[in-house]
């Protein structure tokens, strides 16, 4: 062995990303998916009994699909043959089959073929696997983030068992991060982290173990003594756009234009628009700003505002200048004089803030589409109430994820046409309230 071979190998391991270094080495170290690998659960029993079927792991990124496949191969003493469906073809599959046949013939060792992103295999590639999965030459473990019902053909899917993996919860991610902080493969207790910072990392990983560890590693690069919430926020922030200072007046005029329309001053709005157009501003830029304004500041208080803004944008594209200034002026005057409402942008920002707090919560089963038997057997669409089957084409139903029941994002104003929307919304909300004893249903 070369004198420098072992140190170089160790150095290469230390240079590996934290998420790679922290891969579990046994099922006991594996975090999450207890419904599959917990003691007494289906997959754990199959591994321990040596009766592992071919499987498809279906779950979000960072839920442990690849890691679990490696641990299964290790626990069953099978040869592990990983390939990616992105760059593997039928030739690579046949080579793998040949090696599997020889391995069994000479060593009586089985082969576990792991196909990452199996949904990317075309029909010919999937069909090439069929006979070898069926006769046991290969135990196939596929991994996918896509619905197997749509992405894997029926012949192959009938020979596989689909198992669902779920995003890790905040507690599991905190445990994972704590292990990385104290493990010799991680930071070996040399990195200090505030508890609030650890929580912030776990919350912003949205159930993705790899993303959580990567974020921790990024924070370690930014930290001087200890990782704080400020360190985490700095590590997560995205580059902001900076404008050339020579263009400052340009953006000042745009700002004045928008604020004049918002303030219902058609004279000022027309003036600032003329300033832009006469200075050589691209008329399509002005038109796009008006389309945004029509939704952001007028909205459903006057729904025709968006129609007129879009029509003006198309008219400019069709007519060009200078004629295009006429429909633009018509639209600006209308938007400036229209009743105002910022319900659209306000509602969206409330929903966005909720998503940032809670992450991408799973869609309730009764709201999911169920076009295949597999999905129906998993409870998709069960109990869904079709509104058109009820009086008034309405039925009280929960359409939000678990944990968000009663959350509100839509607050229609009393301005313009939204007044009627507000009344309708209040009426529907009243129907959702629980009935008092003795009240008519």
Task: Give structural notes.
- This protein has 441 residues and is an alpha/beta fold.
- It has helices spanning 5-15, 18-21, 34-37, 42-49, 65-76, 90-107, 123-134, 148-151, 154-157, 170-182, 195-204, 209-222, 229-236, 248-262, 266-278, 283-298, 304-319, 325-337, 343-358, 373-377, 418-432, and strands at residues 55-58, 79-84, 111-116, 139-144, 161-164, 192-193, 226-227.
- Helix 7 links the parallel strand 3 (111-116) and strand 4 (139-144).
- Helix 10 (170-182) packs across helix 12.
- The radius of gyration is 29 Å and the shape is elongated.
- The termini are far apart.
- The model is unreliable at 1-10 and 238-246 (pLDDT under 50).
Which terms summarize this structure?
single chain; 441 residues; alpha/beta; two-stranded parallel ribbon; 21 helices; 7 strands; elongated; disordered N terminus
Q: Quaternary state, please?
A: single chain
Distance between the termini: 84 Å
SS strand fraction: 5-15%
Structure classification: alpha/beta
Rg over C-alpha atoms, rounded to the nearest angstrom: 29 Å
Major sheet attributes: 5 strands, parallel
User: How is the largest sheet built, in terms of strand order?
Assistant: 2-3-4-1-5
In N-to-C order, the SSE pattern is HHHHEHEHEHEHHEHEHHEHHHHHHHHH
